[in-house]
Write a structure and sequence with these properties.
With 445 residues, the protein is α+β, with helices and mostly antiparallel strands. The chain has a single domain, classed as 3-Layer(aba) Sandwich (Peroxisomal Thiolase, Chain A, domain 1). The chain contains 15 helices and 15 strands. An eight-stranded mixed β-sheet has the order 5-4-6-7-1-8-12-11, with helices on both faces. A three-stranded mixed β-sheet has the order 3-2-13. Strands 9-10 form a two-stranded antiparallel sheet. Strand 9 and strand 10 form a beta hairpin. Helix 1 packs across helix 2 and helix 6 runs parallel beside helix 7. It is globular, with a radius of gyration of 22 Å. Bound molecules: acetoacetyl-coenzyme A (CAA). The site of acetoacetyl-coenzyme A has 26 residues, from helix 2, helix 6 and helix 7.
């Protein structure tokens, strides 16, 4: 076996858009800069009334299969990662397979299907499962489809309302991939945390400020764990660092801590020492609080250095461009970050074959995972095939009252009859309820 990784990716965004600076901020009596500068977000994607996690996931998977000229028999596994599931027993992957069987000859009766749950890290965990299945030689030459799909809606007036989003990412995991090869080495940071959860409820209970700190703590643990198997990391080893992006400001916070960690005891720390000193070490302090203060001062100074800024602009900033326009897609978010970064390299005409990505996934509750990906020969053709720009440009721009209606339309506790805002075209749509309360779907030509 040569290598295993991601052979192809397709993205499907919810077809509605909420402009955060122009529409949401004034209605919330906030400065637009809170969104554009503080959180780093310009807009959120929302599902139209006929869209949900199944339609978005099935539409992404349909395009993926058509583009790669695949038949159901070529697929041995369909896993869906989501934290927006509406059924505690029947997995979303069965609904998606049912949709795909409406448009392809044949069926997925011999494909293993499941649903993965661990908040936003479940998409990466599903890739892991597919990787292990292929590496174990149990795939009979077939590939796996992983779909990360979410409607990341928060209760109205929850602070999380600023970071909402909806969309799906479908990925084909296969041998000898066209896009990226996955590293065998992985690092984990995992702990029982109560920062973001949905105990029998549609919208999350969130301790927002704490969730930010938990993200940083688990990511740090995962990085240390990765280094145990993958060896020391140097900032110049990686062309891109796609991280889970609930909002770009979160990644801005994480990036400087990651950079501080990986430059310790390197030529970069030495080169910066004349300007900002060396990093404080715990053994240099009798008092923990003084050490923390010194570390925080060093981090603030580090953030302002040209060296750090250049690294951030080259390695992290390109991964945030789609997220700025769509908000948080939970399980899909880190996979959107990967696409954003690779898209920027393709648009710049870079020869990136063999370059590496340091990928940081995260799920509340909480677990972070770090691994490395290597860009493969076919990457440019894969990026050229994406139509994400057209999708983003054709979203319907909601005014605030329409946003309120759309939020209600997707709220299980509200009885509403909201008209659709866009006309479905060559896609799967929600088509009402079946006799056992199941959701039903139809393909619209
Ligand atoms: N100009 C510039 N910046 C401004 C500003 C202005 N006029 N007004 C505010 N800001 C800045 C703030 O300083 C802040 O930035 P810093 O944190 O760097 O200081 C930023 O804008 C946001 O402002 P607030 O902190 O006041 O915003 P908030 O109280 O509304 O809460 C939040 C922000 C906690 C992230 C909230 O949106 C939330 O709870 N989100 C959901 C939870 C979440 O996404 N957590 C992330 C980690 S958990 C995870 O990653 C899993 C997941 O996907 C959910």
């Amino acid at each position: 076996m040569t290598s295993v990784g991601i052979d192809a990716i397709e993205i499907h965004t919810g077809k509605l858009k909420l402009d955060l600076a122009e529409t949401f901020a004034p209605a919330m009596d906030d400065a637009p800069e809170k969104y554009t500068k503080g959180l780093g977000l310009h807009a959120s994607s929302f599902p139209d009334t006929y869209e949900d996690i199944v339609t978005m996931g099935a539409n992404a998977a349909h395009r993926l299969m058509e583009r790669k000229e695949l038949e159901p028999d070529d697929i041995g596994r369909i896993d869906v990662a989501t934290e927006s599931a509406f059924d505690h027993s029947k997995p979303v992957s069965t609904y998606i397979a049912g949709c795909l069987e409406q448009v392809f000859e044949g069926d997925f009766h011999h494909a293993n299907k499941g649903e993965r749950k661990f908040a936003c890290v479940a998409g990466t965990q599903s890739i892991d499962d597919a990787y292990n299945w292929i590496r174990a030689g149990r795939n009979r030459g077939r590939a796996a489809i992983v779909v990360a799909t979410d409607t990341a809606l928060y209760a109205r007036d929850d602070p999380g309302e600023s970071t909402q989003g909806a969309g799906a990412v479908a990925m084909l995991i296969d041998e000898d991939p066209d896009l990226v090869e996955l590293s065998k080495a992985q690092g984990f940071g995992s702990a029982d945390e109560t920062d973001f959860l949905k105990p029998q409820q549609q919208f999350p209970s969130v301790d927002g400020k704490r969730s930010v700190n938990v993200y940083l703590a688990r990511m740090r643990e995962a990085m240390i764990d990765y280094q145990r198997v993958g060896g020391d990391i140097h900032p110049d080893d990686f062309r891109l660092g796609p991280f889970h992006t609930p909002f770009p400001g979160m990644v801005r916070k994480a990036a400087v801590l990651a950079y501080r960690h990986i430059i310790r005891d390197t030529d970069i720390e030495d080169a910066l020492a004349d300007d900002i000193g060396r990093q404080p070490r715990p053994e240099g302090f009798d008092d923990e609080e003084q050490y923390r203060e010194a570390l925080s001062e060093y981090t603030d100074a580090l953030k302002e250095t040209d060296r750090y800024q250049e690294w951030y602009d080259r390695t992290i900033n390109p991964t945030l461009s789609i997220s700025r326009q769509v908000g948080n897609w939970y399980t899909g978010s880190v996979h959107v970050a990967r696409v954003s970064g690779l898209k920027a390299l393709a648009e710049a005409g870079e020869d990136a074959v063999g370059d590496q990505l340091l990928v940081g996934s995260y799920g509340s509750g909480a677990q972070a995972e770090i691994h490395v990906e290597t860009i493969q020969d076919g990457w440019e053709a894969e990026l050229d095939a994406l139509n994400i720009d057209e999708q983003l440009d054709s979203r319907y721009d909601l005014d605030f009252e329409e946003y309120e209606d759309v939020h209600d339309a997707h709220n299980y506790d509200e009885e509403t009859a909201v008209e659709e805002f866009t006309a479905p075209d060559s896609e799967f749509v929600f088509d009402g309820w079946g006799r056992m309360g199941e959701r039903q779907y139809r393909y619209v030509d």
